[in-house]
Amino acid sequence: MPSANFEAAAKAVKQLKAKPSQDELLQLYALYKQATQNPKFESADKPGTFDFTGKAKYRAWENVVKEGITPADAEKKYIALVAELKQKHGYDPSKTPETVGS
Fold it and tell me: Domain ACB spans what residues (predicted)?
């Protein structure tokens, strides 16, 4: 179960003043998926042939798994990455968190 710090980071990343780069977004996605393990990588569906975004996300997550990053380590790395992105892109705690995945 993710920690309160992880949950706070997951909310904070949606309140950045500027959108992170595609590489940063993929890194966030992969670490989030590994930290939450919902579903576990081994049981996750592979994206379809023409789902290029899904493939990029899947490969990013796969790389994290291949590196041997545990869910606990992924959580720590995610929190650290969000802190770095808050410095780089700015952070507005009064901003309504952006909806993700809609």
Answer: 1-91
